[in-house]
Amino acid sequence: MKRDRKRQRRPEEGIALLIAIFVLLLISVVAIALLVSSGTETALGANYRASSTVYYAALAGLEEARGRLLPKNPNYLGLSVPALVYGTTLPLGQAVYVLNQLPSETIVPWDSSDKYYDNEYQREFGVAPSSNSSVTSVWDNNVQGIPGPTFKWVRINAVTEQSLYLDINHSGSYNSSTPIFYDLAHLDSSGNPWPSLIESPSPPSTAVQALELTALAYLPNGSQKFLQYLVAPIALNLNPPSALTMSGNNVTFSVPSSSSFWVNGNDQFSVGSCAPGPNPIVGVGYTNNGDASQSNITTAIPSGNNSHFTGYGGTTPNVSYVGGVGGLAANLQSVSGLDSLVQTITQNADVTISGPATQNDMPSAMSATNPMTIVVNGDLTFNGWHGVGYGILLVTGTFTYDPDASWNGIVLVIGKGIIYSYQGGTGQFNGAVFLATTVDGSGNPLPPGSPLGSPSFDFTSGSGGNGVYYSSCWVKYVQTPMTYKVLSFHEIPQS
Amino acid sequence: MEMMIATVIFLLLCSAAFALLSVAQQRYQTESQVLNSFQEARFGLDEIIRDVNGSGYPPKNSFSFNLGPPPANDYASTPVAWAPGYVSNTPCVIDSGTGVICTTPGNFDLIIERDVDPWRHDGVEWTRYQLQGTLLARAQTWKVSGGDPDATTSPAFVPYVQNVMNNASPTQIAQFKAVYPQMFPGGNPVPIFSYICPNATPPPASIACPLAGSYNSPVNITDVEITLIVMAPTQDAQSGLPRLIELHGRGHSLNPIQ
């Protein structure tokens, strides 16, 4: 009986375990399938994120370095690296690194054992830099302690044809010893304007050095990217042909009878290390020699004061046509060119003020050591202000000037093109003054291709002031670069 | 009796597990295909963006022209090459405007001009993307001095991204919209490439090239917006509906306009 019971139970033994194991297996298969699926999705998302992040991190590094090359930047690189001071030529072989380190991380890009070694320099120049220096990034975690873009360093250096691998002058060879410049006034072989890179051991005064910026960005997962800019400083490059320039047609002109009023084209006033040059420019310049501009100007000058209007050539009164070759730049004689200039200045202004404005709206930070670019959109009135302005002043409306005040730099009255003065004083303009009318009588913008209107220099006979004195040093000093233009950009392929 | 109950439970559990597995497998197959399409499209999109970002390198004014012009394939004379009129250097207009309408660049055709790897020192390349049916094809050739980018790149196409549905037929678009109402606005094909140019009459400073007035030209393209709509090779295993994904990207040429 006992044996029979055992025989009956035997087929059922362990079936529950088998079922349990089988079900477990099935569930496991399903679970694994789901895991694999979601894992693939995660990996795809992560790869894309890494690719984008590292690109924009490197771009952020380039933009930081480009911005910090500007003298106006509070973190101006020239403050800590003398070779990067604007106007200085960065020697070949010198590499300046902007480092962006993580906490407790030390990056030495010129050390071949460093994780972030800069092997790109060697590839471009064939040799290591002869000297290296570094500054920290504004994002540097060791200084700021805040997370920022994940670029590791940006290198700033001069370039040659060989390092760029560009035969810039089409000579058939790659020069490795001459730094490359960018010349806005360069002419091609046919004599046509061709702003471009140039290779010359003695670049013209219109040329500025082209600098190469190279950024390395690196992510913890190993993604890395090299991006490269070639940049050059771009200033307004205003070279007035006359101390007082009136661009347009049938200009109107009146000047005080006061003997203290001058329009003087002789170069004067030192600024810093800049000394005035020996070459005068025209006193009063006009751009249409086929209308009444010249007679309007000359007849307005009191005969007893003819000698107070002096400049190039020594004739008195020194009033000359400056609209031809070698005179005022063509873009400053057209509505579209002047509109473009106003737009450029406005985009890069330190301060933009909506008119009507007064001297109270002038920025207090403006000083001889901190000249500023100030744009007044509308009318500006100085009245009873005994201060001095420094920089570029652009007024699009009427500029009512009280000669109690002085201005060192460039005064541009473009728009209504009217400067008016009726009061007395002992102030003066040191630098250059430029007038042009680009709006009609109702204040509407003139069409781009239409002739310019009639600018007006209206100092009443009873007004005073010392007038306008040309100063090449002030003209140059206030024209610090507005930007470092990107001349070219490319991603360096990783081998 | 005990055996019978166990067997029934076992069978029930088995059927439930198999049913679940079947659903999971179908889901997995569909998702795998969608992911493959996504991966392929994402890779393609990244490459196009990278090409656009580097377009126009090296710019023409990298050369001084002191001794006359260098060979035209040493530099990129435009970020985006065009047809017709490239050889005679007469830019066409994009989509609409005064002048000859471009055949490329267009909604489904783009030729980028750039030196992909300056260190190879082999000159500038033309990289072309063109939608052929539902295949986005890619071609890359050397820039030929005096050559026509359209004719030069045409024989060099290779498959790049498959099942691109941006230019689907009206019937297909109607089917897609039933599942994805947000896709294909207005029931129209969706351009893969849209172009941004400086505005001739700002503001805004930049605008779609066809609205850019006198700046509507391939030589003035600063940005290319890219939209890729890709369909999985097979329909959803459960619902039988098409599975689509839409990817967006934007490339910005940092090289200056010539």
**Percent in helix of chain B:** 25-40%
| Oligomeric description of these chains | heterodimer
Number of strands of chain A: 26
Find the structural class of chain A using helix and strand composition: alpha/beta
Uncertain spans of chain A, ≥5 residues at pLDDT below 50?
none
Our measurement of the CA-to-CA distance between the termini of chain B, rounded to an integer number of angstroms, reads 90 Å
**Count of helices of chain A?**
7
Side-by-side strand order of the widest sheet of chain B: 1-2-3-4-5
Structural class of chain B: alpha+beta
Main β-sheet of chain A: number of strands, strand sense, barrel status? 11 strands, parallel
Chart the SSEs and their pairings.
The complex is a heterodimer of chains A (495) and B (258).
Chain A: H1 2-9, H2 15-68, E1 94-99, H3 119-125, E2 131-136, E3 151-158, H4 161-164, E4 180-183, E5 196-199, E6 207-209, E7 211-218, E8 224-234, E9 242-247, E10 252-254, E11 262-264, E12 282-286, H5 293-300, E13 309-310, E14 319-321, H6 335-347, E15 351-354, E16 357-358, E17 372-377, E18 380-381, E19 388-395, E20 398-400, E21 406-415, E22 418-421, E23 428-437, E24 456-459, E25 467-470, H7 472-477, E26 483-492
Parallel strand pairs in A: 1-2, 9-12, 9-23, 10-24, 11-13, 11-25, 12-14, 15-17, 16-18, 17-19, 18-20, 19-21, 20-22, 21-23, 22-24, 23-25
Antiparallel strand pairs in A: 1-3, 3-7, 4-5, 4-6, 7-8, 8-26
Chain B: H1 2-53, E1 80-81, E2 109-114, E3 125-132, E4 135-142, H2 149-153, E5 158-161, H3 170-179, E6 193-198, E7 206-208, E8 223-231, E9 244-252
Antiparallel strand pairs in B: 1-2, 2-3, 3-4, 4-5, 6-7, 6-8, 8-9
